[in-house]
Design a protein that fits this description.
Elements (H helix, E strand, L loop, with lengths): L1 H7 L2 H9 L1 H8 L9 H23 L3 E5 L5 E4 L1 H6 L4 H4 L13 H13 L5 E8 L5 E12 L5 E9 L1 H23 L2 E7 L5 E3 L1 H7 L9 H7 L2 H17 L3 E8 L5 E12 L5 E9 L1 H24 L1 E7 L4 E5 L1 H7 L10 H5 L4 H17 L3 E8 L5 E12 L5 E10 L1 H30 L3 E5 L5 E4 L29 H12 L4 E9 L5 E12 L5 E10 L1 H31 L1 H27 L5 H29 L7 E3 L1 H11 L1 H6 L3 E6 L6 E3 L1 H18 L9 E11 L2 E9 L7 H4 L17 H11 L3 E6 L5 E8 L7
Parallel strand pairs: 22-24
Antiparallel strand pairs: 1-2, 1-5, 3-4, 4-5, 6-7, 6-10, 8-9, 9-10, 11-12, 11-15, 13-14, 14-15, 16-17, 16-20, 18-19, 19-20, 21-23, 24-25, 25-27, 26-27
Helix pairs in contact: 3-4, 19-20, 21-23, 23-25
This protein binds adenosine-5'-diphosphate.
The site of adenosine-5'-diphosphate (ADP) has 21 residues, from helix 23 and helix 25.
Protein name: histidine kinase
Subcellular location: Cell inner membrane
Main location: membrane
Length: 810
C-alpha cells in the first residue's frame, strides 16, 4: 500500500515540489483570497486551485515528505511529516535534516544522501530510525531520489513511511524467537515438525544442535534414523509406524549414537496432527536427557554400591516415622538381617519387631522414647531370633530428626550385625582370661621355682628378672642394666668361654647350659647355669634374649667332690696295686730269673755246640732261638710289672677276659707254687670280648687269687686248689660275662660276708682291708658286680659279673 502511495508520488508531485513549496505556501496562505483577472487570471485561478489541491495532498498525505539540499538542510517538510516527528514544519525547515536522526546514524544518512546525489533521478530505499522531538524512536522506510532544479542545482526528495509498528513487531518476534532458542538451549529441548508421509522435518536450532547437524541442511527422517542408536532403531521405527497409523501422540525415549562414538539419551514427545486431507504430522519436542540419565545411572550405581557396602559390612540403614510407628525407609540389608527377603516390601514394622527378643525390645522402646524426649542420639545392642533358630547380635545407633513443627518427626539410624565380632570378642576374652590364668600360673611357678627367668635387650643388657617369693633363693638382685659378663668373677679366668658365648650372642644363636661363677644376693659365690634363646618382633627384628638360669652350685660342688673322690680312689687303687706288687716280688723275681737262667744255660749250650769240631750249627741255632724266646718271656714279665706299677689313666678297650686271667695267674705263679696251690682253669672258649681296663681287671684278679691263696694257708687235710671259671649267660637279653674264683680255704662266715667289701675291714694281722673294696669299685666302674659266697663245702667263691653289650663286642 505504501509502495502504491509512493508510486503516486510521481513526476507531477516532484515537479510540484521543484516548483517551490515556498510559493505554494504563499498561495495557500497570504494570497488565496485575491480575485482572478482575465485569461491569465483564469489560468492563475486554475493553477491556484491545482496548487491548493496538491497542497492538500502534500500536507495531509499520510506520508512524510522532506526536501533536502545537498548540505542536508531541510528545504521543506509536509505538516504530516513534521507532526509525525512532533514538530511544526517551521521548526524543521532551514535546520539540518540530521537533527531528526540518531547521532550514530548520521554517517549512514550522509552516505544515503550522497548516493542519491551521485545517481540523480534514481530512487533509493532504506530503513532508518528517526528521533522524535520527545526523544522517542520513529522507524521509517525512506524512498529518496535526487532531482535537478530549474537552476540546475540538485535537491533530494525523501518520502518516509512509518514502519515503527512493523519494526516493533519484528523486534518482539525476534526477541521471542531468541528467548525460545535460549530456553530450548537451556533446557536441551528442541522442537520439530515431522511429516511422516514425506519424511520431511522442520527443526529448531536446538534440535539441530542435539542431532549435531548443520542448520543449513534439510533434516529428514532418514537422517534421524541414521543417528538413532542401532539397538534402538527398530523399536523407534515401530513406535513411529504405529503412531502414524493411529495418529497417536508420541512419548518415548531412545538413544543417539553420535559420530564421535558418544551416546545421547533423548526423550521425545509429539502431538499427532491430522490434516483435513488425512495427512498426519507430528509437532513435538525432544529433550536431551543424557545428563539426567547419566545422573540416574550414577545414582543407581551408587545405590547398588551402597547396598553392596551394607551387605559386606553387615550394616543396614532405616528411618522410622515416629508418629506412625512405621518404617519410612529400610535398606535391603535390614530385611536380610531380620531373616526376611528383600522383596517383602509390604511387611509392617511389627513383623520386624516380633523377631527381636522380648526383653531386648522392651529396652529398645524405652531408649527410643527417651531419645525422642531428649532429642538426643542413642545407641543400643539387641538380639534378633531368626526363624532358623539362629541369634544375631545387633549394635544400633539412631538419632532423632526434628520436623518443621519442631517435633521429632523421624528417627534415622543403622543396625550393624556384630554377631561375629561378639563371638570373636567373647573368644578373645576367654583367651585373655586363660592367658591371664596361665600367666599367673607361670608367675607362681617362677616365683616359687629355684630357677629364675630373665630377659635381655638387643645390647644384651638385662632388662627383666623374675620376682621370687622366696628371698632365700639364689636369684641375684641389682643386675638390671648389666650384661652377663659384667657379673661373674670368672670373666677374666675363662676368657675363651666368654668369647665363645659372645660370638653366639652376636650371631643371635640360642645357647644352652652355660655355667659360670657369680654371686648370690648375699654376695656368696655361686655357680649359675643359664640357657637362652633370641626373640624378635613381628617384623623379625632382634629384640634380645629370654631364658632361664638356675643355681647349680650344689651340683657343681658334688661333681667336684666326686671328681676328688675318683682321683683319691685311683690313687688308692694304684697304691694297693703297687703294694700287691711288693708282695709279689718273690714271684716276679722268679718269673724273671727263670727265663734268665734258661738264657744262660742255653747260651752255654750254644757256645758248646759252636766249639765242637765241626761246630753243630743246627743245635747252636736252636739254643740261640730258645735264648731269644726266654729273653722275650722275661721282657714280657717286666713289661706287665711296669704296666701294673705305672700310674696310668683308665683305658677302656675290648678285652679277652680269658687272656686277662692267664696273665694274672702268671704273675702269681710263684705265690701259688710256694703255697702249693694248684690252679684249675675252666675258661669258656667262645667268650665274647668285654670293654674294660686291662690293668684294673688284672688287679682285681690278682687280689682275688692272693686272697684265695692266703685263705688256704691253714689247709692241712684239704687240697689247696683254686678254680677259675669263665662263662657267659643270657637271661632274657640280659647278657653277662661271668668269672668265678673259688678256693677251698677258711670260707666266709655270715658276719664276714657282709663286711668284706667295707673299706679297712680285715681279719689279717698285717692286712689293710682295702683290697676287696677297691676290687668292687673297679668292677662297678665297669658297670658290673662283684659278690662273694661261702661254698657248700669249704672255701669261698668270688663272682664277677660284667655286662655285655647286646651285640657281641668282639
Ligand atoms: P686284706 O686282704 O688286706 O684283709 P681284703 O679286703 O682283701 O683285705 O680282705 C678283707 C677280708 O676279707 C680279709 O681280711 C678276710 O677276712 C676276708 N677274705 C678275703 N678273701 C677271703 C677268702 N678267699 N676266704 C675267706 N675270707 C676272705
Amino acid at each position: 500500500m505504501m509502495s502504491g502511495q509512493i508510486a503516486k508520488f510521481g513526476n507531477s508531485a516532484a515537479q510540484f515540489l521543484l516548483g517551490g513549496l515556498a510559493a505554494l505556501r504563499s498561495f495557500g496562505n497570504g494570497e488565496k483570497d485575491k480575485p482572478a483577472l482575465g485569461e491569465d487570471s483564469r489560468q492563475d485561478i486554475d493553477l491556484r486551485d491545482a496548487v491548493k489541491q496538491w497542497r492538500e495532498v502534500f500536507e495531509h498525505n499520510p506520508v512524510m515528505y522532506f526536501m533536502v539540499d545537498p548540505a542536508g538542510t531541510v528545504l521543506n517538510v509536509n505538516t504530516f511529516g513534521a507532526a509525525q516527528l512532533g514538530y511544526m514544519a517551521a521548526e524543521l525547515i532551514g535546520q539540518s535534516v540530521l537533527n531528526v536522526f540518531f547521532e550514530e546514524d548520521h554517517a549512514s544518512v550522509r552516505r544515503c544522501i550522497a548516493l542519491c546525489l551521485e545517481t540523480v533521478d534514481q530512487p533509493h530505499t532504506w530503513e532508518v530510525r528517526k528521533i522524535r522531538k520527545d526523544g522517542s524512536v520513529l522507524w521509517v522506510r525512506e524512498n529518496a531520489k535526487a532531482m535537478l532544479r530549474g537552476d540546475g542545482t540538485p535537491i533530494v526528495l525523501v518520502a518516509c513511511e512509518n514502519i515503527t509498528q512493523r519494526k516493533e513487531a519484528e523486534d518482539a518476534l525476534r526477541q521471542s524467537e531468541a528467548y525460545l532458542a535460549h530456553a530450548q538451549e537451556l533446557s536441551h529441548t528442541g522442537s520439530f515438525g515431522l511429516s511422516f508421509a514425506t519424511g520431511e522435518a522442520v527443526w529448531s536450532r536446538e534440535t539441530f544442535r542435539i542431532f549435531q547437524c548443520d542448520p543449513a541442511t534439510k533434516p529428514t527422517l532418514n537422517f534421524v534414523f541414521q543417528r538413532i542408536h542401532p539397538e534402538d532403531r527398530d523399536r523407534v521405527r515401530r513406535t513411529l509406524d504405529r503412531a502414524s497409523i493411529e495418529a497417536e501422540n508420541l512419548d518415548h525415549e531412545y538413544r543417539l549414537l553420535m559420530p564421535d562414538g558418544s551416546v545421547k539419551y533423548l526423550h521425545s514427545v509429539a502431538r499427532a496432527v491430522r490434516h483435513a486431507s488425512g495427512r498426519i504430522e507430528f509437532v513435538g519436542a525432544i529433550t536431551d536427557v543424557t545428563v539426567a540419565k547419566e545422573a540416574e545411572e550414577r545414582l543407581r550405581r551408587s545405590e547398588a554400591y551402597l547396598a553392596e557396602a551394607q551387605r559386606l559390612s553387615h550394616t543396614s540403614s532405616w528411618a522410622c516415622d515416629v508418629r506412625r510407628q512405621e518404617f519410612a525407609y529400610r535398606s535391603a540389608e535390614l530385611y536380610r538381617l531380620f531373616g526376611f527377603e528383600p522383596d517383602q516390601i509390604d511387611l509392617p514394622a511389627r513383623d520386624f519387631q516380633q523377631r527381636i527378643l522380648p526383653e531386648d525390645f522392651r529396652r529398645i522402646v524405652e531408649v527410643e522414647r527417651q531419645a525422642v524426649r531428649q532429642r538426643e542420639p542413642f545407641q543400643i545392642d539387641f538380639r534378633i531370633a531368626r526363624p532358623d533358630g539362629s541369634i544375631r547380635r545387633v549394635h544400633t545407633e539412631g538419632h532423632p530428626v526434628i520436623g518443621s513443627d519442631g517435633e521429632v518427626m523421624e528417627i534415622i539410624g543403622t543396625h550393624v550385625d556384630v554377631t561375629e565380632q561378639f563371638a570373636a570378642k567373647e573368644a578373645l576374652q576367654r583367651a585373655f582370661d586363660e592367658l591371664k590364668t596361665s600367666e599367673q600360673r607361670f608367675r607362681d611357678y617362677a616365683e616359687t621355682a629355684s630357677d629364675w627367668f630373665w630377659e635381655t635387650g638387643p645390647d644384651h643388657r638385662i632388662t627383666h628378672i623374675s620376682e621370687h617369693a622366696d628371698t632365700s633363693t639364689a636369684a641375684p638382685t641389682g643386675l638390671i642394666g648389666l650384661t652377663r659378663w659384667d657379673i661373674p668373677p670368672d670373666a677374666e679366668l675363662e676368657p675363651e668361654k666368654w668369647e665363645q658365648h659372645r660370638l653366639a650372642l652376636d650371631a643371635h644363636l640360642p645357647f644352652r647350659d652355660l655355667v659360670y661363677r657369680s654371686r648370690d644376693r648375699n654376695g656368696h659365690p655361686i655357680y649359675v647355669r643359664t640357657s637362652g634363646k633370641p626373640f624378635h618382633d613381628a617384623s623379625g627384628s632382634f629384640l634380645g634374649y629370654r631364658g632361664v638360669s638356675s643355681d647349680v652350685t650344689a651340683a657343681i660342688r658334688a661333681e667336684q667332690a666326686e671328681e676328688a673322690l675318683r682321683k683319691a680312689q685311683a690313687e688308692l687303687t694304684h697304691v694297693t696295686r703297687v703294694t700287691t706288687l711288693g708282695e709279689l716280688t718273690a714271684s716276679i723275681a722268679h718269673e724273671i730269673t727263670q727265663p734268665l737262667a734258661a738264657v744262660i744255660s742255653n747260651a752255654d749250650a750254644c757256645i758248646g755246640w759252636l766249639g765242637r769240631e765241626p761246630a753243630d750249627l743246627t743245635a747252636a741255632r736252636r739254643s740261640a732261638e730258645w735264648i731269644v724266646e726266654d729273653a722275650n718271656r722275661a721282657s714280657e714279665v717286666i713289661r706287665r710289672i711296669r704296666a701294673l706299677a705305672k700310674k696310668t689313666e683308665i683305658e677302656v678297650i675290648p678285652l679277652d677276659l680269658n687272656q686277662v686271667v692267664r696273665e694274672a695267674v702268671a704273675l702269681v705263679r710263684r705265690e701259688l707254687a710256694t703255697n702249693a696251690v694248684s690252679v684249675r682253669m675252666e675258661l669258656a672258649s667262645d667268650l665274647p670280648r668285654i670293654c674294660g681296663d686291662r690293668i684294673q681287671l688284672q688287679q682285681v684278679l690278682i687280689n682275688l687269687l692272693m686272697n684265695g691263696i692266703e685263705a688256704m694257708q691253714a689247709n692241712i687235710d684239704r687240697p689247696r686248689e683254686l678254680a677259675i671259671r669263665s662263662s657267659h649267660a643270657d637271661d632274657d637279653g640280659d647278657r653277662r660275662l661271668l668269672l668265678t674264683v673259688t678256693d677251698r680255704g677258711v670260707g666266709l662266715g655270715k658276719d664276714v660276708t657282709d663286711r668284706i667289701f667295707t673299706p679297712f675291714f680285715t681279719t689279717k694281722s698285717g692286712g689293710l682291708g682295702m683290697g676287696l673294696s677297691i676290687c668292687r669299685s673297679i668292677i662297678e666302674a665297669h658297670a658290673g658286680r662283684l659278690s662273694a659266697f661261702p661254698n657248700e663245702g669249704s672255701g669261698a667263691t668270688f663272682l664277677i659279673a660284667l655286662p655285655l653289650p647286646y651285640k657281641d663286642a668282639s
